[in-house]
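Section 5.1 Outputs to date
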Amino acid sequence: MPDFHLIATFAIIAATIVAYASERWSMEAVSLVSLAAILLLFGAFPYTGSATGSENEVLGGEQLLAGFSNPALATVIALLIVGQGLFATDAMEAPARYLGRLGGASSYRPILFILVGAGLISAFLNNTPVVVIFIPVLVVIAAKRSIPASRVFIPLSFISILGGMTTLIGSSTNLLVAGVARDYGVEVGFFDITVMGATLALVGSIYVLFVLPRFMPERRAELAAGAKSGAQFIGEITLTRDHPLVGTSARAGMFPGLGDLTLRMLQRHDVPHLPPFEDLVLRAGDTLVVSGTRRAFSKALSQGRASVENEESDGEETGQEAPPGPDYHLAEAVVSPGSRYAGRTIQLSGLRPRFGISVLGVQRKSRMARSGLSDIRLEPGDTLLIGGPMQAITQLRGNHDLLMLEHSAEAVPQSRKARTAVAIFAAIVLASAFSVVPIVVAAICGAVMMMLTGCLSLLQAARAFDRQIFLLVGASVALATALEATGGAQLIADSSLDLMAGSGPAVILSGLFLVMALLTNILSNNATAVLFTPIALGMADGLGLSPEPFIAAVIFAANSSFATPIGYQTNLLVMGPGHYRFSDFVRAGTPLVIIIWLTFSLLAPWYYGL
């Protein structure tokens, strides 16, 4: 008869899954409550059993909390930081533009190319780094094509898992099963699972590519205030002797070197020049009055086309400053009614000496005259685009004269560090792909290098840390540890085998697959693989059949980790970028689990001659 600890563990797991799926409470709250419940259970009522590793060893907090030091969790968090480094340097913008051109006018075709490519690459490269490679590319393309992120990232994770089913090295699960089988004298070849795996992947891909995106929720990221629209700011750029735009000639009346900024007026020796600009060459000392979106100003700063100094000192020409570092942020602040700055020009506002910030642009609802930024007199309701270190911008919070828009602060991309970020990222992928070092080592070293080389700041790295994933994994590992230690996982396996006793080989194989597919979404793919490989080999031996179809069933079922975010590492990786909830994986993944199970159940008896 099951003991108290086993029944209580099952009850806590069931309640946790229901709470996750109901979404009445946040994922962090559910994780913390379930973790506290399992710790209280084994703390108040100590449990000793052989499943803990020793007959006399008590299952306690040390084992239950081991999930927070789990290498998979450390890998995911480190890779999120590395991905943030790629975002912070705009390193993925060029590949995204190239793939976007391949897609032509279609909004979804570039996404389709990426997903198919990810599936093919996952057959020969561990699917975790494959997902990491394509996340930043998909972020850019989805934003440019106005496709909700929630519609592309679960398909990316699922297609990489399906691709990983097709060869022995496609997934760590495959290698783990092969290793356990080898200990029992059964060898699994590199392409032994390829035909059946490719068939399952093809059937599953039809669902993932063409059906799944249609019913995924249109949940878009909450953008910073300045990024929500194409609102135009007026700013100015003073050209110094070594400014990159000096010597640029007008083409078709415009200056292409300005990028996305539009030149409204050129002031030379106090003489204004208005568009179209014909036969003009930019010189040192010219003042360019420009307009553009916040993104355009940010890009100009990152590429050194705009200076962080926008307030004139004494009209003296100074050397061009280097592009701002990773701590330099842009934010937006509104001039409040009754503000002391109303009626003042930006030049005489004193904002820089008081707060250490620069005013890069002004946005006004009414039409503004063509004049330099330093000559504009501020009015209540004006929105200022300000720049400075995060510490300086933070000082504006609570100021009654300038009302800073919350969550509007964003770091200026470190475009000049793009090659460095790509090199670090490539080193991580290659080191993990060729097993130079474990992926957790490569990922953590890569995250540290991103910060040491200035690709991103410590603050940006901290923002990449997802506490939702951290708590979800830690609590889930604690529940899985308790289930295995109390014999719950073994009980499920044994009970399933008893139910199938006396059935034919095809029914037994199908039932075994279904049980493993359910458990892999609750425990983990690796735990399911290790637990069921000996069971599957024993069943094959007892039935007098070849072990090949049973080993294949373990590999494919353990990889069917689609129905929960905790089922597979790539699911955790896409949770943040896709802004997913627990129920999104249940809704999207459960049909795929059923499709893979039914396809295997129908084809495996014929293919393996059962």
